[in-house]
Specification:
The structure is a homodimer. Helices cover about 45% and strands about 10% of the residues of chain A. The first copy, chain A, is of the alpha+beta class.
Chain lengths: ~450, ~450
C-alpha cells in the first residue's frame, strides 16, 4: 500500500520533532513553527509527548519512549521537600528541555515554576504511569517497570495523589489549571479530566507494582480507592435524561450521612432547559467538575474519552457518550475533531470563570476550541466500543484540513472553521495524534496500549 | 464595678453552653436557640469554640480548654490513612458531640463527612495549634504542649499542610468551603482566610515544638516557609492605591522566572473603577484569594484581621487596613460589627460563584452578612495597633443590638440592619466574641493570647 502525502509529511514532521540528549532520542518538542517565537514550545511536554510516544511504540521505536521514561524519572524529586520553592516529592515535570552549558548537554525541567501563571502540572505524573504501562504492553519489557527506581517512582506518584489531603472524597484534589487546560477555566478541585487520568493511572499501577512487602500498602490503597472513585464518577458525575430528572428535583441542605444530594447542588445553577434540549435521549456524558454546590455541566473531551478507554464508565455509559458525539456532531466535531470543552463560557461566565482571559475568549483555545490531538482518543474510544465508523468519519474530517493548514495546534469557532488565533503550526501532537488515529483504525490490536477492561465491579 | 445586664446575660449563656463529657467540661455548643431544630448546632465546632476558649483562658477557666485540646487531639487520625472514607492523618474534626450508647458517653467527630455539601474543615487544625499556644501563654503550662502526644499532633498537622502538594506556592492549597465560609463562595485554592490562619499556626508551632532531633526537620520546614509566605502575602495579596496602579498596567502572558505578573492576572478582571473609588488613599487591605489569572478583590475580615494580629502584614499595612475599616465604616461595620466579606456577590457573580446558593443570597450569611463574633478579632487588631477608640466604637455599636436581638449568629443587609434570615439566636460565639472584646478592651495584656510580634523579616 503506497503511503499518502499527508501521512508521508506527518512521519517526516514527527521524525524532525525528536529531541536528542547526549546522542539519544529522549522526546519530541511541542511545535516547530518557524514563524512564531518558540517561548516554551521548544520543550518536551510530558502530556504532549504521550501521543508521540504511543505512535513510537506502535512503530517499534520503543527506545525513544524508554529513554523518555528514564530521563523524566530522574527529574522526579525523591526526597521529602519541605522547601516550597522545590517541587514536591513524586511530582513529574510539566516539561523539560536540553540546554548547553560549557559545551555539555544538560536537562532542565519545568515543574510549572516557569510557566505562565505558575500552574502546576498535576496530570504529568498520571500520564507518566499510563505511558509506562503502555510501554510494557508494547514491548513486554516488564523488567524496566520492575526496576527498583521505577517501582519507587510509581509509589511516590501514588503517595502524592492518595495519601495526604484535606477532603474525604475519592477524587484527587488539584489546583486550577493543573492539566492540558493549564489556564483558569473552572477546573480547580475535582475536574473530570484529572479524575479520568487518575483512574487510569491507578489501574496501570495495579498492573505494574510487584506484589511484595514494600508495595503491599500501596497496592491495598489502590484497591481501596478504585471502587469508591468509580462509583463517584459513574453515579455523581453522570448526566443523561434520567439523571437530569433526579437533579432537577434535588432536595437541598441535607445534613448527615444519608444525604442524596451529597454536594448540596442547587437546581437553579444547572442550565436544565439548554441541557434538556441538547442531551439526546440516547446520549449522556460525565460532568466536567463536582464539588460543594458545584456541578460543571460542560462536556470535556479528555475526561469523557479517557473514561471510556479506561472503563471508568460502564458499557451503557460509554455508548451513550459516543451517541452524544454522533448526535451532536456539529457541536462537538464540526470541521475539526474535536472540541476540548463544550459549550464555550461566554459573557459573565467567561469574565468570572476565566478572569477575562483573552486567549480563552469564547470559542477559542481551551474555551470551546477544537484540538486535533483528541482524534486519537476519539478513535480509541470508538474502536473500543466497536464503533469504528465514527472514528473513520472523524479522521476523514480531519484529513480535509490538517495538511493544508500545516498541522495547527488548535482551531477556533463554534464549528472549528477557523485556525486557532494564536495557534502554532506544525504542532507535534497534532501530527502524532493523526498518525496514531490512523494506526488504531488500521490495527485495533494497538488499542491494548491504552485500554483497560471493565473488571473492577 | 457592677456588672451590666448585657454582660450578666452573656456570662450566663456562656456557662449554659458548656458541653460535659463524663463529668468534665470539654467545649461549648454552637447555639442554644429553643425555636429552631438543632441540626448540627448542638455540636462543639472547633472554629466556634476558639472564641469561648479564649474567654475561658482570660477568666481562669483553663481546665475547659485543656480538656478540649486533649479530646480533639485524641480524635486526630495518627496513622497514614489510605482509605479515602477515613479522614487524613493530621486532620482535626470540624466538630464533635457527646452521644449516649448503652448508658455510656462517647465522643462522635465530624470531619466534614456529615456536613452539608461534605465540606472539609481545613481551618480546624490551624485553629487548634493557635489555641494550644494561647493556652500555654495563659497558663504557662508548657508541659501540656511538650507532651509527646501534643508534639506529635503538631507535627502531623504541619505535615498535612507543608509536605505534599501539587503546586509550588508558599500558600497552602485547600478545597472550596474549607473554613468558616463553609459553602461555595470562591474560596478554593489559596483563600486569604486560610493563609492568615496558616501563618499564625506556623508561628505558634515554632514556639511550641521542642528543638530536638525528632522535630528538627519540621522546625526547619517552618522557618523555610515563613518568609516566602510572608512575602507572597505582603506583596501579591496587597491592594492599595499604589498597588492598584501597578496591577492596572500589568503585562500579561509573561513566561519565565522573571515574570512580574506571576499569576497572569488580566487587568479587565479587576473592578478598578469601583476599587479606585472605594479604597481611600490612606487605606489598603489584603485581597481575598490569589491563583492563576485569579485575584479576588473582595475584603475578607478574618484574613485581614488575623493578618494584623499575627503580624503577617507589616505595620504600615496593618494601619492601612484599620484606616479602611474606619473610613468605610458604613460598609464594613454599619449597624453590627462586622462584615465577614465585602461586597456581596450579586447577579451573575452570585449565580456563578456560589452556584445559586439561596442561603448566601446577596448581603446575607457569608455573602456580605455581618457576624458579631468578629468583634473580638477587630478589637484585638485595633488594640494591637494602639487604636482602641476604633474598638470602643464598634463595641458600642454591637451593644445597642445584641441583648435586644438575643445574640444572633449573623445579620443581613448592606448595613447589617436585619437579623440574619436563617440566623440562630443565642449563638455561643456571638456571646463569647462580645465578652472577649470587652476583656481585650479592659485589659490589653490579654492580647498576648493571640498576638505575634513582627520579627520574621
Amino acid at each position: 500500500m503506497s503511503i499518502r502525502p499527508i501521512e508521508e509529511e506527518a512521519w517526516e514532521l514527527l521524525e524532525k520533532s525528536i529531541i536528542y540528549y547526549r546522542g539519544s532520542p529522549v522526546g519530541t518538542i511541542a511545535a516547530r513553527d518557524p514563524d512564531i517565537a518558540a517561548l516554551n514550545y521548544d520543550q518536551c511536554f510530558v502530556r504532549d509527548f504521550v501521543s508521540s510516544a504511543l505512535i513510537f511504540l506502535v512503530k517499534g521505536r520503543a527506545d525513544v519512549v524508554r529513554n523518555f521514561l528514564q530521563i523524566t524519572l530522574k527529574l522526579q524529586p525523591k526526597t521529602v521537600q519541605l522547601d516550597c520553592s522545590k517541587p514536591s516529592r513524586g511530582l513529574m515535570p510539566a516539561s523539560f528541555k536540553v540546554e548547553l552549558f560549557n559545551g555539555q548537554e544538560y536537562i532542565k525541567a519545568d515543574f510549572g515554576d516557569h510557566a505562565i501563571g505558575r500552574v502546576a502540572p498535576a496530570d504529568a505524573c498520571l500520564w507518566w504511569i499510563i505511558l509506562l504501562r503502555a510501554y510494557v504492553v508494547a514491548t513486554q519489557d516488564l523488567d524496566l517497570a520492575h526496576r527498583d527506581d521505577f517501582q519507587e517512582g510509581i509509589r511516590l506518584i501514588l503517595t502524592l495523589c492518595l495519601v495526604t489531603r484535606f477532603d474525604m472524597y475519592p477524587m484527587v484534589l488539584v489546583p486550577d489549571g493543573a492539566s492540558m487546560i493549564d489556564r483558569r477555566m473552572g477546573l480547580y478541585g475535582h475536574p473530570l479530566d484529572i479524575q479520568s487520568l487518575f483512574y487510569a493511572a491507578l489501574r496501570a499501577s495495579a498492573e505494574l507494582l510487584i506484589p511484595n512487602q514494600e508495595n503491599q500498602q500501596m497496592i491495598d490503597a489502590i484497591h481501596c480507592r478504585l471502587v469508591p472513585l468509580l462509583k463517584q464518577i459513574r453515579e455523581n458525575y453522570w448526566l443523561d435524561s434520567d439523571r437530569l430528572n433526579v437533579i432537577y428535583r434535588f432536595q437541598v441542605e441535607e445534613y448527615g450521612e444519608e444525604a442524596l444530594n451529597q454536594f448540596n447542588i442547587f437546581s437553579d445553577s444547572i442550565p436544565f432547559y439548554r441541557l434538556a434540549k441538547w442531551v439526546p435521549e440516547a446520549g449522556g456524558y460525565l460532568a466536567g467538575n463536582l464539588g460543594p454546590s458545584q456541578m460543571d455541566c460542560r462536556f470535556f473531551a479528555i475526561g469523557n474519552l479517557m473514561a471510556i478507554i479506561s472503563s471508568l464508565t460502564n458499557e451503557e455509559q460509554s455508548h451513550k457518550i459516543l451517541n452524544l458525539i454522533e448526535l451532536r456532531w456539529g457541536d462537538l466535531i464540526g470541521h475539526m475533531p474535536m472540541k476540548l470543552c463544550y459549550p464555550a463560557l461566554e459573557d459573565a461566565d467567561w469574565r468570572i470563570v476565566t478572569g477575562c482571559d483573552p486567549k480563552n475568549r469564547p470559542w477559542s483555545y481551551h474555551n470551546g476550541g477544537s484540538w486535533p490531538v483528541l482524534l486519537w482518543m476519539l478513535t480509541a474510544a470508538a474502536r473500543k466500543m466497536s464503533r469504528a465508523e465514527l472514528a473513520h468519519h472523524a479522521i476523514a474530517v480531519a484529513e480535509r484540513r490538517l495538511l493544508l493548514d500545516h498541522w495547527p495546534e488548535y482551531y477556533d469557532g463554534p464549528d472549528a472553521r477557523l485556525i486557532g488565533k494564536e495557534s502554532r503550526r506544525y504542532q507535534t501532537w497534532t501530527v502524532a495524534g493523526y498518525l496514531l488515529a490512523k494506526e488504531l483504525i488500521a490495527n485495533p490490536d494497538h488499542l491494548k496500549l491504552v485500554n483497560f477492561e471493565d473488571e473492577v465491579i
